[in-house]
Amino acid sequence: MAQRVAIPDGGSKKTSRVRVAVRLRPYMGKQDEKDEGPCVRGLDSQNLEIINWRNATETVKYHFDVFHGEQTTQQEVFLSSVKPILPHILKGQNASVFAYGPTGAGKTHTMLGSSDEPGVIPRAVREVFNLVKAVDEEEGWSYSIGMSYLEIYNEKVLDLLSPSSHDLPIREDKDKNILIPGLTHTTISSFSDFDKHFVPASLNRTTASTKLNQRSSRSHAILLIKVVRTRRALPHRQQIGKLYLVDLAGSEDNRRTGNQGIRLKESGAINLSLFTLSKVVDSLNSGTAVRVPYRDSKLTRLLQDSLGGSAHSVMITNIAPEYKYYFDTFTALNFAAKSKLIVNKPFTRETVAVLPGESRVKRVREDHETGGSGTEPQKKRQKEDKKAEQDGSSPSAHLHSLSEPSVMDRLIALEKLMMSCQDKDRLNVLKDVAQSRKEIQELKEKQKQFENKAKLLSRLAEEKSEPSFKNNMAPLQRKQATTTKATKQQAVVQPLQVSQLQPLQQLTVVKKQSVCVKKKEKQLSDQVEPPDGKENIMQKSWESQLDKSVLEQSRQKILQVLNTGCLKELKGLQQIGDKKAKLILGWREIHGDFSKVEDLIKVEGMTEKRFTTFMKANILSAMGK
After folding, report:
1. Between 37 and 153, where is the model more confident?
2. Pairwise CA distance, residues 87 & 154, whole Å
């Protein structure tokens, strides 16, 4: 049996405030045409100021945990803001890092980065593997690491590791942990193994171009790293720590982004989820809110543990220095200032394997310590006995529930406690022993009564079985009377119709069948061969009609496009869409060039049947057939 217990932290529960870091990105291209300069500037490593829009001669100052200026590198952001919370994961606690800010402020660059300057996500995963390797093996703990990757697009939870999946539900277990049934969880053993799964999955994320950002994220992406720590010796203790790495989509002003159609719908869903996130922060800071609106959005539902929950949280707020981003920057700084007031209560929960005998002795000790005479457990047993007496229809179930071994084990445990107790407590223990013995006698009497009731019920069932079969004959006799009436009507009307119409119908049908059979035989004789598989037969029929040299040239052209073509050229091939083209690019980055065209089957989602249709469509289209 597994039992979840909370590790005591020495008195009162420790609290952890949400750490807020602000990062100012450099200018994108030239400065403003009016040459007004930046609207934000940093004062030191924790303070910054922004021009007051009501009065340009004044500034509004903000104080945060960390301020990263324009010259700050990815390494410095990771070391100062993210790395300090990672050791908590190995102790069975949760941690989360999420990037917030307007569109075009550099959130995805902070979280993902590039090949030359990796961001928070690759650095954090590499650091988790380094921490696991650095742990002394003599401690007797074993570690396993797994990952899950999802996106929230138009209020739909989509699995990026399995692109064919549909909208996934969000659930909550009995311990108030947020779960997503059906989400792919992949075990990883090294950073290269993580990179092999993460790079193709990141290509599945929905992105598009707007007036403010050429590659704007149209969804919220959440990466989950799960570390399971298991004790090798008995009892097998297991601690689970989770790391949430969240790249939020930026808030958008549709008047400046020029969104229309699908982009307008996407920005509406993004702004609504971010507005719900601000409502959650306001209700947590008010202290008087009866309800925190976590369930109003799927984003806040998944961030429930990070904001006001049990995780060590870090929020990296990205802002832009240009004046055209002024109001977006101003609202982002106000949101960050409110978020740093949120207090979380992290704790360690572990699963402990408990033997059945130990759990019973522990229950007896708790009853003895709390009640003394054990009045509360007796009331519960009396209620169960009353329910058993009222339900007389199923005596076998009550006989199973009124089992004596549990009472006997409790009696033995009480006797053992009696031998170890002091003289003052011995009288209370003796009373409990006497009461338990009386209960045993009452249970035996009730057991005999239920056995007698069971025998009576079985006799009544046997007596009632005979008339029940006799009553079932009545509807069958009525059905026979209705069928006889129908046969009388058929005997009068049908003979003339049958004798005249049947021969004509047979003659016409025979002629039509003969013509159809001849046509079908001609078609089958030209196409059909012995049934070795329909796909192989169709493939031989169209390939045999082509010249071998022309066929080989077209195959080489397709192979050249697969190895050197960009996303647009891959989408130009028949049967290749946007997602398949991205999967081919991801496979090519990991495994290299395709040695032959048949290697395309190794790409995810490409079966043999799809490959044959792909080759036929591209070769015939190239030849103009």
Report:
1. 153
2. 34
DSSP-derived letter for residue 341 is T
CA distance 246 to 95: 11
DSSP notation for 230-274:
EESSSS-EEEEEEEEEEEPPPB--HHHH---THHHHHHHHHHHHH
- Cα–Cα dist 194/472, whole Å: 68
d(CA 482, CA 29): 91
Backbone dihedral angles phi then psi of residue 223, each to the nearest 5 degrees: -105, 130
What whole-number distance in Å separates Cα of residue 617 and Cα of residue 357? 69
Could you give phi then psi for residue 297, rounded to 5 degrees? -150, 150
pTM above 0.70, yes or no: no
CA pair distance 218, 288, nearest whole angstrom: 35
Structure token pair of residue 194: 């993580």
- DSSP character for 118? B
Q: Please report, for the chain, how many H helices and E strands are present, in that order.
A: 19, 20
Contact 182, 161 (CB under 8 A): no
Q: Is 66 helix (H, G, I), strand (E, B) or coil?
A: strand
Q: Which two tokens stand for residue 279?
A: 């409502």
Residue-wise pLDDT for 23-64, tens only, equals: 999 887 655 555 667 889 898 999 999 998 888 788 999 999
Cβ proximity of 213 and 266 under 8 Å: no
DSSP state, residue 80 = I
**Rounded Cα distance, 401 and 251, in Å:** 59
